[in-house]
UniProtKB/TrEMBL annotation:
PANTHER family: SET1/ASH2 HISTONE METHYLTRANSFERASE COMPLEX SUBUNIT ASH2, SET1_ASH2 HISTONE METHYLTRANSFERASE COMPLEX SUBUNIT ASH2. GO terms for biological process: methylation. Its main location: nucleus. CDD domains: SPRY_Ash2. It is found in: Nucleus. Keywords: Methyltransferase, Nucleus, Transferase. This is Putative histone H3 lys4 methyltransferase complex subunit. The lineage of its organism: Eukaryota, Metazoa, Ecdysozoa, Arthropoda, Chelicerata. Residues 98-323 form the B30.2/SPRY domain. It comes from the Eukaryota. It comes from Amblyomma triste.
């Protein structure tokens, strides 16, 4: 399901690489992987399958799409599940070399694994939160803590819904949008990286400050809508914006799976925060627009996020079948971000390989 957009993305590599004066390298790279033409899936099937070294074969994932025993994002580090990169150079040499056995795997031989659907993240959550088997429902435990979705966006208009399935007395939720550095062991809106709407009294939160927003709040049975609008800065129009390739990070192995390890640089991120003119967050309740809760929010990548207090249960809907998709403003469901992010990540990975081609040598690492 992920091959067609990946191969399609290769069409744009030469054009993008030309902008950074790497056209010859891009052409050689395209020749290695085979420029897409005709039926992409048939082309993939026809490619020869050599015998792979066990380190370059990813174990089969469980039905929920993520390893059962996995590291959590905590203690100042984040972990990104990795898979072998079929476009990386020297894969065959690494497979066949006995000198590489038992030694660290070069990170550029792997790439970030992109989920095929928007779900609640197994690893990007407080461990005490309980996720359903389909990873669309979450139940709280004791104090406030948070979970983010698997996919984030940084420009455009996007929407998702949350339905409160159960809210016992004295429990509560804060739901909204969070950047990747928002504290998972705190309510959403605790720091500068998140914006939330609380069930109690309908208060909106950012940076631990609550503001009156909507009388009455919300409770069991209510379906809430969360819209975010992130326009592109005028000075960035026409510029290529791609996600991190992570290929220069350290690979760590946990229970047969490999992860890129990323250190959180919170203070640096705080200093870099700046308002995004024209951006806003709008909330909906049972199909009715409650209003714009925030304007000119901090620039960055935002993920659907929810924090829960005690044992309430909330089900998320990332699309396509929404109960109350907004009619007053054009927007995309979060489910539509999947293919776009796959293509962007693939371009980022290939550009990294193009720009660092001269440094990716096994003999320089092992011999």
């Amino acid at each position: 399901q992920r091959l067609d957009p990946i191969m399609t993305a290769l069409f744009g590599v030469a054009k993008v690489a030309a902008r950074i004066h790497r056209l010859p390298q891009a052409q050689r790279l395209l020749e290695k992987v085979g420029a897409p033409s005709g039926n992409f899936r048939e082309k993939i099937k026809q490619q020869p399958r050599g015998k792979n070294k066990s380190d370059l074969v990813m174990p089969k994932l469980p039905p929920n799409g993520y390893p059962l025993d996995h590291p959590y994002n905590k203690d100042g580090y984040r972990y990104i599940l990795a898979e072998p990169d079929p476009h990386a150079p020297f894969r065959q040499e690494f497979d066949e070399s006995t000198d590489c056995a038992g030694k660290p795997i070069p990170a550029w031989l792997y790439r970030k694994l992109q989920p095929a659907a928007v779900l609640l993240a197994m690893h990007d959550r407080a461990p005490q939160l309980k996720l359903s088997d389909d990873r669309l429902c979450v139940t709280g435990e004791k104090g406030y803590c948070m979970v983010r979705a698997t996919h984030g966006i940084e420009e455009g208009s996007w929407y998702y819904e949350a339905t409160i399935e159960d809210m016992p007395e004295n429990s509560a939720t804060r739901i909204g949008w969070a950047q990747e550095l928002a504290n998972l062991q705190a309510p959403l809106g605790y720091d500068r990286f998140g914006y939330s709407w609380r069930s109690r009294k309908g208060t909106r939160f950012h940076e631990s400050r609550g503001f009156h927003f909507h009388d009455g709040g919300y409770g069991a049975g209510d379906t809430l809508g969360f819209l975010i609008e992130l326009p592109k800065r005028k000075e960035k129009e026409g510029q290529l914006s791609l996600p991190d390739a992570f290929k220069d990070r350290r690979l760590v192995k946990v229970k047969s799976y490999l992860y890129f390890e990323e250190k959180d640089e919170v203070q640096q991120a705080i200093k870099a925060l700046q308002p995004l003119p024209g951006s806003r967050i709008v909330y909906y309740k049972n199909g009715e627009c409650v209003g714009t809760a925030w304007r000119d929010i901090n620039e960055g990548m935002y993920f659907p996020a929810i924090s829960l207090y005690k044992s309430c249960t909330v089900r998320l809907n990332f699309g396509p079948n929404f109960k109350h998709k907004p009619k007053d403003v054009p927007c995309l469901g979060m489910h539509e971000s999947v293919d776009k992010i796959i293509v962007q990540q693939t371009l980022s990975d290939i550009l990294y390989l193009v720009e660092n081609e001269s440094q990716m040598r096994l003999d320089a690492i092992y011999f």
